[in-house]
Amino acid sequence: MGLRSAAGRPVAIARGAPTNVALLALVAIAFVTGWLAFAFATSPARWSLILHATGGFAILALLPWKSMIARRGVGRPRRGRWASVLFGALVLISMAAGLLHSTGLLVYWGPLTAMDFHVGAAIAAVPLAIWHVVARRVRIRPADMSRRNFLRGSAVLAAAAATYAGSELVVRAIPTPGAARRFTGSYEAGSFRPELMPVSSWLFDAIPHLEPTAWVLKAGGREWTSDQLANFDDRVTATLDCTGGFYSTQEWAGARLDRLIGNASGSSIRVTSATGYDRRFPIENAGSMVLATRFGGRPLDAAHGYPARLVVPDARGFWWVKWVTAIEVDDLPPWWQSPFPLQ
Ligand code: HEM
Ligand code: HEM
Ligand SMILES: Nc1nc2c(c(=O)[nH]1)N[C@H]1C(S)=C(S)[C@@H](COP(=O)(O)O)O[C@H]1N2
Ligand SMILES: [Mo]
To answer: Are 128 and 83 a contacting pair, CB within 8 Å?
Structure first.
């Protein structure tokens, strides 16, 4: 795979296996580090995104080689060729959307964000990726493990890291809108302006319109009405950082969870929405979480979780359960849940 013309372009591939295996590792790294970044709203998000972007740029760096492999493959009259091409298209769409987000050139696309396309295309590519690797099996030969291929692999990684570092410098030097990203890659929106705060859902939840007179909260072995809840005035300034690519800082007010659960004992707290959406938290965190009824000095609106929504400082937006109806303490461990919501 290493022959080059006088112009320095790769001209022939003796073997595609090393390129394909490198791609397998890189696609897997990009996928895992992407989700890892979504799991955190603190510094691990940045570390995983550095790996993520380097992996992404390394895939781009292998494109000249892979396009030769792909051209040869497409030329063979074989079943599933078009599934491979669709796979390639999804990877390229994901890559393009990732770069549109990171440079800030196109962050919103109607109600969707570049991040939604980035992750959506990557998820859609997963079954095709598995099929591709199984149907186009590669065999590694001892000769593939050569010092030369190892050096080439290192060169590709170094080039990818340098391209990423360079792109970050360019984004800041021009500057493109991407210069304003937070360490999670998210863009500021409507901070301290509740009326301008974006509205988001994890997947399928629609905004329920709850009647304040009918709504009750179950917590600490009793029921709370919205009037009773309105008497609390615990305040916290905290940033909601949505994996869709925006963040918004607000002054939240409501009831600290340790006050609501009383002296209930157990390992974790399960917070449930009127929609069925729920998240579980270590009981030790009760003192730092607030069940908010107000933000920026005004009541929550339906879209942002009225009558009450959870505020979890330093946790990603998907932990901030909206339209809360129950807060229960039990003995299940806090990790006893899907790492990301399923609805
Ligand atoms: C095929 C799989 C994927 C590839 C090849 C890929 C590649 C990329 C690339 C090239 C970028 C732009 C890097 C930059 O210039 O900063 C990017 C950004 C990003 N990707 Fe992915 N990605 C993939 C999947 C995912 C998944 C599954 C997630 C999350 C679950 C994710 C989350 C992110 C985030 C949050 C950013 C923004 C980083 C920032 O703005 O600093 N990616 N990705
Ligand atoms: C970014 C990830 C990848 C993309 C976009 C991609 C895309 C493609 C396309 C479009 C083809 C030509 C159509 C076909 O033969 O079905 C192809 C061929 C092939 N791919 Fe991939 N592929 C990727 C990763 C991989 C990986 C991870 C492996 C194996 C570990 C692999 C192994 C192969 C093989 C063996 C062929 C056939 C080459 C030939 O017939 O000469 N590919 N790939
Ligand atoms: N019940 C419920 N709560 C939810 C969600 C949801 O889909 N259902 N989405 C979460 C996600 S992913 C985010 S980013 C925030 C968005 O809050 P906002 O609409 O006030 O910006 O709500 C969280 N709380
Ligand atoms: Mo979100």
So the answer is: yes
Domain with CATH 3.90.420.10 in the chain: 188-330
The domain made up of 188-330 is a member of CATH 3.40.50.300? no
Q: pLDDT digits over 252-270, tens only?
A: 999 999 999 998 899 999 9
**For the CA of 21, the nearest atom of ligand 2:** 30
Please list every protein residue whose CB sits less than 6 Å from any atom of ligand 2.
16, 20-21, 23-24, 27, 59, 69-70, 72-74, 76, 80-81, 84-85, 87-88, 91, 132-133, 136, 138
| pTM for this entry | 0.93
Q: Tokens 């060729």 — which residue?
A: 81
Beta strands in 245-316 (DSSP E): 246-256, 268-273, 278-282, 290-295, 298-299, 309-311
**pLDDT tens for residues 14-31?**
579 999 999 999 999 999
Q: Please report the atom of ligand 3 found closest to the CA of residue 205.
A: 7
